[in-house]
Each structure stands twice: as C-alpha cells, then as structure tokens.
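for the recovery benchmark. tokens below, seq after
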C-alpha cells in the first residue's frame, strides 16, 4: 500500500487551495438560491461519503445542496416532513396530529396511488428549481436527483417498482429548453444505487419513451386549480402500451402544485394497462 507523508499531504492541500482561489477569482461560484457569491469552503482531499438516509431529513438536504446553496439559504431550506397526506404527500397545516388524508384527497379521487415530495416549493428551493429549469443549469441535475433518490428509498420498496419514468415535455418545448428537467434527475439513479450498495436487488427500468405529451399546452404557472385541470386534460398518451401493461410505475416530476399534470399522466398509464402508478416530485407547492 502506498503511503504519503505529512509534507506531501500538506503540499497537496496547498496546491488545491491555490487552484480553488484562482478558479474563484475568474469564475466565482454563485448561490443558486439568492444569487450572492458563495463563501470559500474547505478543500475536500479525500473521498467523502455519500450522506445516505439520514435520520434528520433537513440535515440530509443541507448536506446534498451545500455545494450549490450558501449557508443562509441552507439554514432555511424548506423540507416536506410529517404530518403529510398519505395519498398526495401534501404537508398539513396542523403539526399536532399525525399523517391523515387532506380534504382534497377525501373529496376528489386521485388517479395515482401515492405521491411524495422532498422539498417545499418556496424561498431558496423555488429559486434553485427556476435556475435549473429555465437557466440551463443542468449541473444541478445530479444533486437534485440525489434528493429524489433519497425520497424514493425512504418511502418506497424498490422491489415493488418495475419502472421509473419522467413526466414528458411536448416536442416543441423540448426543442426550446433542450432537455427534460425531470428526466435528467433520474438518469443518475442507477449510478447512485451502485454507490450506495443498492444494485444487488436493482431491477428497475428507467424508461423515457413510453409516455408522451401529444398536446402543446400553455404553462400551468399562474393558473388556478380548475384552469390547470382543464388546460392539461387529454395532453398525455402512451406510445408503448405493451411496456406499461402489468408494470408498477413510478412517475417523476420537478414540482407538484395541484396534481393535475400527474393525474393526467396516471390516467393515460392506467388506460395502457399499468398495474400501479406512484409519484415522486422534487418539490411541492403549498
């Protein structure tokens, strides 16, 4: 085994600090939450362990997002935590009772069986997702995908999911943006499963062609619940029904607001013979 002396390690640390200082002088790192310059961080010379399945969900989110958010934004990172609706995953206002069905899920039938979200769509999280989604910050796909993967491991049994798929974009919007933000976040999942030792029982297929968006609708942003439902109605179809038939599917999206988009996707998948449809989104609007 090769051993390095204290002097060698000290010189390596010094070179790393000098290199970081030169890079930051020319290309200073910016917080994706508030837009301010990021403070200098300690140089990591060893292979840091992945912060997996922390007892405290907020601490886990902070550790994953530390490279892209400043300490002030990390301090107030809004997470989705119990009590929540066990169906749609919406955080409940009352913090005294346990998880229970929200009023909307009691009065309206959902097309999906269960939905969960990692973060609350507010503050630094809102700015972070906007930076990723609208400013071509595709470098954020992996840390955001890590939060999604953790939500998957926390709330789902991998052996009960056959395939993972992203909510698709219409071809016109795909050409405008250049990438599907939901799809990019799950492309690293097999790699994460390998790093965390989950590949032994990993039989999940990441599929990006079975579900398609056949209608180019106006953006849902700014629409109320009724308008969102009408705007997205009939927008999705299944191009490969044979793939969906009999499979338990997990849908991935960046933000869930009223659930109208997810509902329409789930309806299309069930029409194609899906055995089940569950959902994970990066963030949940309140």
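predicted aa per position
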């Amino acid at each position: 085994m090769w051993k390095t002396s204290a002097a060698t390690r000290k010189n390596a640390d010094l070179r790393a600090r000098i290199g970081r200082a030169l890079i930051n002088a020319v290309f200073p790192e910016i917080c994706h939450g508030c837009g301010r310059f990021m403070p200098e961080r300690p140089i990591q010379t060893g292979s840091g362990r992945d912060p997996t399945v922390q007892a405290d969900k907020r601490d886990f989110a902070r550790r994953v997002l530390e490279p892209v958010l400043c300490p002030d934004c990390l301090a107030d990172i809004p997470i989705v935590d119990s009590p929540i609706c066990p169906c749609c995953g919406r955080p409940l206002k009352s913090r005294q009772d346990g998880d229970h069905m929200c009023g909307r899920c009691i009065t309206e039938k959902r097309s999906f069986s269960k939905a969960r979200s990692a973060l609350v769509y507010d503050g630094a999280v809102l700015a972070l997702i906007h930076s990723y989604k609208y400013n071509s910050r595709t470098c954020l796909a992996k840390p955001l995908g890590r939060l999604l993967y953790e939500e998957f491991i926390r709330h789902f049994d991998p052996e009960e999911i056959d395939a993972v798929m992203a909510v698709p974009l219409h071809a016109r919007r795909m050409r405008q943006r250049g990438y599907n933000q939901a799809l990019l976040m799950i492309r690293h999942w097999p790699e994460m499963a390998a790093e965390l030792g989950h590949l032994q029982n990993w039989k999940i297929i990441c599929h990006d062609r079975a579900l398609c968006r056949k209608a180019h609708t106006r953006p849902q942003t700014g629409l109320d619940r009724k308008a969102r439902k009408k705007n997205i109605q009939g927008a999705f179809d299944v191009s490969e029904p044979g793939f969906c038939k009999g499979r338990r599917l997990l849908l991935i999206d960046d933000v869930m607001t009223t659930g109208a988009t997810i509902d329409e996707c789930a309806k299309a998948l069930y029409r194609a013979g899906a055995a089940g449809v569950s959902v994970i989104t990066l963030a949940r609007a309140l």
